[in-house]
Every structure is written in structure tokens, then in C-alpha cells.
UniProtKB/TrEMBL annotation:
This is EamA domain-containing protein. It comes from Tsukamurella paurometabola (strain ATCC 8368 / DSM 20162 / CCUG 35730 / CIP 100753 / JCM 10117 / KCTC 9821 / NBRC 16120 / NCIMB 702349 / NCTC 13040). GO terms for cellular component: membrane. Keywords: Membrane, Transmembrane, Transmembrane helix. Belongs to the EamA transporter family.
Length: 356
């Protein structure tokens, strides 16, 4: 039974994140996008803040971000936790839950683009093809629906995915100096503070809305935000990164099923086709790259780490080298690390910090 717990945790996380799109769509007519985001973050920040404080008291390990890391924490708290959530809520004023989930899940490609541009990881052919396929899918959704209404929803969802990608890279930098729980709890708290001016409107709208809207806001903060994060961290610690990363593909499918079951909504045929293209693009971008074979070694030249020229595919751009314990450092050699493999590691690590 113990061996099944990580898999069970992963299933719960996927269902929780998928259900968030459905709940947002369900209570959208009664609560505006910004107040709804504030309600979710108030609940989520309160729960995560308490857990973070208890963890700090129990372990005595408090690693607060400082300097640039603190500035990045404030940035992704405002952009990711606050604005991303607002954009998803607003997108679902125009699109059904399943279509929104399909569009938002192009975020891993955004991360790859940013890694290529700012982390100097390049743009291999598969990544470029994945980008083209995914945005072709977004275009199919935008131009096959109800004119401006669907176009606005697509723009909002893609903007949310863009913020997601930017913020994953920012949080990745922050977690070099602090732990994921601290980074996430602080991000949620900052997001709630940024949207605090909309708290009075939240309470006014909830007072006039059906009781189910209040229950929905509480659910969004407790389950897809706080509980899902904790279970996600547990699953990551006991499951291969490739399994956890690929499991995110289940979120749009589950969103479509839940939306059909609870809201009697399904994407149009064109919307479903466009969404499938989005996910195919993500899958293509994540395909293994051909490069210099991992495990090949070159003579230690005594100089700084650098590129090794030669090879096929991505290897022509130079294989990345690592020197250290367990990687050939004690034998005086450097191990060649596939740049595509390194990019996948970075993306997997970024997806570990995912917030839906």
C-alpha cells in the first residue's frame, strides 16, 4: 500500500488542478475575475503560511530570500500568483473550462523558449516545431469560435501561460537560495497582498451570490492551491521526474470530463482539435534530442568548463560538460552531458513548482 501512495497523491493532484478550471467556470457568473483570484489566494496563502510557519518552527530551518532572490519572489508573487490567476479567471468568462485548460498547458513550451533565450540553451528543431504546432492549435481555437469572444479568451489564456513560463524561470532562480515551500508560501502571500484592494468587492459579491460560490472560493484555496501543492511535493519526492512531468498532460483531459459531468459543457470540435494540437506541440518539444552520447568522456584540459565541439544533432552546438564527484572528476575526465537532456532537467524542475 505504501508504494501506491505517491501514485495516489499524483492522481489527486491532477484531479484537483483539473477541477480548478471547472469550479472557476462554475462560479464565474457570480464572482468577478479579480475578486475571485483574491479569494482563492487569501485562503491558499493562509493555509500555506501556517504550514510554512509550523515547518520552520519544527525544523528550525528558515531560509528567506534576500537581494535579487527577494525581488524575484515579489515579481512572481505578483505576476504568477496574482495576475496569472486573474487571467485564467477572465479567460473562462469567454471559453469553457476544458479549452482554457488545453491552452494554459502550453506553458512548458513558454518555459523552453525562455530557457533558450535567456539561459542560452538554444532552439533545437524539435522545440521550434513544437512551438509552431502549439500556436497553430491556439489559432484554430481563436478563429473557429464565436469571433471576438473566443479570440479574447484565447488571448487571455495564452497570456496566462506566458506569465506561467516567466514565473517558473524566476522561481527556479529563487529556489537556489531557499526551499520550494518557502518560495511558494511567500509567492501566495505576496499575491494575496497585491490583490488586497479587491477584498471588499469579493465580500460584497459573495454576499449576493449563492452559497455555492463561497464554497467554490474556499475549495479553490484549500484543494487546488494548498493541498495540491503539498501532495505534489510528496509525489515528486517518491516518483521519477519524468512521470510527474508527463502527468500534467492529464489535466486538460480531466478538465473536459469534469466540465462535461458538472457543467454540461464540452469544447467544440474545432476547439478540441486546437487543444489537441497544443498538447501535441508540447509533447514534440519534449521529445529526446539526438546529441553526443551521455557517458562519453574527453581528456581533462585543466581549463574552465566549456563546450566540446563535434557530434550530431544538438551535439554540433557543443555538448555541455560537468566536472565533479560521480561525474568523472576523480578520474581526471569530464562527462559530456546532452544539452537537450539538461534542458529537460530544467523543465522538469520548473514543472515541479507548478501552480494551477
Amino acid at each position: 500500500m505504501k508504494n501506491r501512495l505517491p501514485a495516489l497523491a499524483l492522481v489527486i493532484v491532477m484531479v484537483a488542478w483539473a477541477s480548478a478550471f471547472v469550479v472557476i467556470r462554475g462560479i464565474g457568473p457570480h464572482v468577478s475575475p479579480v475578486p475571485l483570484a483574491e479569494g482563492r489566494l487569501l485562503v491558499g496563502a493562509a493555509v500555506l503560511g501556517v504550514i510554512w510557519a509550523l515547518h520552520a518552527l519544527y525544523t528550525g530551518d528558515v531560509r528567506l530570500p534576500r537581494g535579487r532572490a527577494l525581488a524575484l519572489t515579489v515579481a512572481y508573487g505578483a505576476l504568477w500568483f496574482a495576475l496569472y490567476t486573474v487571467l485564467v479567471n477572465a479567460a473562462e468568462q469567454h471559453l469553457d473550462a476544458g479549452t482554457t485548460a488545453l491552452l494554459v498547458n502550453i506553458a512548458p513550451i513558454i518555459v523552453a523558449v525562455l530557457a533558450g533565450a535567456f539561459l542560452h540553451e538554444g532552439f533545437p528543431p524539435l522545440l521550434t516545431a513544437g512551438i509552431v504546432i502549439s500556436f497553430a492549435g491556439a489559432a484554430v481555437i481563436a478563429f473557429s469560435g464565436d469571433g471576438r469572444r473566443d479570440g479574447a479568451g484565447v488571448a487571455l489564456a495564452v497570456a496566462a501561460a506566458l506569465l506561467y513560463g516567466i514565473s517558473v524561470v524566476a522561481q527556479k532562480l529563487v529556489t537556489r537560495s531557499t526551499d520550494p515551500l518557502t518560495a511558494t508560501a511567500l509567492g501566495a502571500i505576496i499575491g494575496a497582498i497585491v490583490l488586497l484592494p479587491w477584498a471588499p468587492q469579493l465580500f460584497r459579491e459573495l454576499a449576493a451570490a449563492p452559497i455555492g460560490s463561497t464554497a467554490g472560493v474556499l475549495y479553490l484555496g484549500l484543494v487546488p492551491t494548498a493541498l495540491a501543492f503539498l501532495l505534489w511535493a510528496y509525489a515528486l519526492a517518491h516518483t521519477p521526474a519524468g512521470v510527474t512531468a508527463s502527468s500534467s498532460y492529464a489535466v486538460p483531459a480531466l478538465s473536459i470530463l469534469l466540465s462535461w459531468g458538472f457543467l454540461a459543457e464540452t469544447p467544440t470540435a474545432w476547439g478540441l482539435l486546437g487543444g489537441v494540437l497544443c498538447l501535441v506541440g508540447v509533447a514534440v518539444a519534449r521529445l529526446p534530442r539526438r546529441s553526443a552520447r551521455p557517458g562519453d568522456v574527453v581528456a581533462q584540459d585543466g581549463g574552465p568548463q566549456g563546450d566540446v565541439r563535434g557530434g550530431a544533432g544538438d551535439g554540433q552546438r557543443g555538448a555541455r560538460e560537468e566536472l565533479g564527484e560521480g561525474l568523472g572528476g576523480r578520474d581526471g575526465v569530464r562527462r559530456i552531458v546532452d544539452p537537450g537532456e539538461q534542458r529537460d532537467r530544467d523543465l522538469d524542475r520548473g514543472e515541479r513548482l507548478a501552480f494551477r
